[in-house]
Amino acid sequence: MTDACIDAVAKAADLLAERGRILAFTGAGASVESGIPPFRGPGGLWETVDPGFIEIDRFHREPKECWRRIKRVFYDFWGKAKPNPGHFALADLQKAGVVFSLVTQNIDGLYQRAGATDVVEFHGTMDRLECERCAFSAPVSKEILAPDVPSCPRCGAALKPAFVFYGEAIPEDALTRAFSDARSAGGVLVVGTTGEVMPACHVPVEAKRAGAVVVEANPDESAFTRSIVDCFIPGKAGEVLPLLRDEIMKRICP
Ligand code: NAD
């Protein structure tokens, strides 16, 4: 880790520990060190895979073909990922009551696997399947994924992963909770997101408008960096967040 990064972590810890009531807002970059690529940008999934298989209209038209790809990308490949030290650091800060709201755009369930209990999943989750017709919902298992098109045991319709497909709305409860938590946050810790995905990218902006201080950790600048960020930490989530957790805890419980 560079000296600039270590200095930025110290400054960020001062700001966040002083304000308290931290909302963490994370994106695809937070899971890169767990082996899950982002969707867009260099090395992103969409460089090699056509995203059409997670468009909702296409899924309705061609469930068998879409499910074939969904299983390969999300369940065979992402399903094997494990939380990295960044996920554990945020889960620890939540357990300590320092992070009061953990809002993620990610669908991979890795914060829960790291011990977090209350995660606002803005784009839903791949860990459950749901029925669009009768609202049946169940955790993912080998058995439920076995047929070519997993089907609802209650009404027989095709099941879909409980994450937001292109063309679908954000789940109402996550939307309401994320924005109301943003309005009451003292500080926001933005991790691993370009800040370009709507409407999620408005969450840190809403917090800033309501008076929160904003810290960002990302190896590269994002749309937030020069607009709303008070302290930018130029580094990877898995390296920066454990150090930031320790520095915040030192200041809160010396
Ligand atoms: P994004 O907008 O979330 O941006 C990825 C960001 O991660 C970039 O700013 C990049 O600089 C940063 N980054 C790369 N490596 C990092 C690291 N080690 N530590 C910290 N930051 C790092 O990316 P996207 O993939 O285009 O996102 C679109 C949406 O797709 C997301 O909002 C999310 O819902 C979804 N998505 C989820 C996952 C997941 O669940 N793991 C993965 C890909 C995409």
Number of strands: 9
Residue windows where pLDDT falls under 50 for at least 5 positions: none
Span from first to last CA?
24 Å
Strand order of the largest sheet: 3-2-1-7-8-9
Radius of gyration, in Å, reads: 19 Å
What's the gist of this structure?
This protein is an alpha/beta fold and 254 residues long. The chain has helices at 3-19, 56-61, 63-77, 85-95, 110-113, 142-145, 172-184, 202-209, 237-252; strands spanning 22-26, 99-104, 119-121, 124-131, 137-139, 159-163, 187-191, 213-217, 231-233.
Topology:
Elements: H1 3-19, E1 22-26, H2 56-61, H3 63-77, H4 85-95, E2 99-104, H5 110-113, E3 119-121, E4 124-131, E5 137-139, H6 142-145, E6 159-163, H7 172-184, E7 187-191, H8 202-209, E8 213-217, E9 231-233, H9 237-252
Parallel strand pairs: 1-2, 1-7, 2-3, 7-8, 8-9
Antiparallel strand pairs: 4-5, 4-6
The chain binds nicotinamide-adenine-dinucleotide.
